[in-house]
Amino acid sequence: MAASDSRNNRADEPGFVVQPKGEHRVIIVWLHDKDERSSDSLQFVEQLNLKNVKWICPSLVFPDSFIKGVGGLGMGAAVALHFATSCALNHYTINPRVVVGISGWLSNSGSLKRSIESASHGAPARAASQSIFITHGICDSVPHPCDCGEEAVLSLREAGFRDVKFTPFARFGPTAHENNRNVMVKSWLEEKLQLDVTIP
Length: 200
Fold this sequence. Notes:
It comes from Arabidopsis thaliana. This is Alpha/beta-Hydrolases superfamily protein. The chain contains 7 helices and 7 strands. By secondary structure, the chain is α/β, with parallel strands linked by helices.
């Protein structure tokens, strides 16, 4: 979606992609502040006029009726879990309903309980309202062993995140373990969000 097309977007759309005007050599994801919109990001990156850069400007602004969630794999899982705990601590105005972490870890596990207990603005209630699903390959060593998933679950539960599920998955070769993992994540999301069940 080019920037020229995206100016007509509604406020609840997910953001803008600004295509490079010259040879495409760089991709930058530009994040706006919590009180701004992706249109503010768009205005900024267009003023820079960098012809070789493709800009991705996601939006944080969605209607209250939308259920928010975050998830990721590996490093993406670590970022998702860190973001979820930061939301519980009221560092952001949103609080995800569902969180998925695949083969990741919790970077602030050692201090999370203390942070939740000492935080103001209803941090325990925000933590308790999140549903978190963590899964990890039993024999995974990259990026971190399965113990990191179990450690994350323990830290989250001790900190007051009440709805945390951990399910390890066995590795029987790339295709088999991916299918196993995908089925678990899909089933959990369908259950938590009451989604329309899709038949493979």
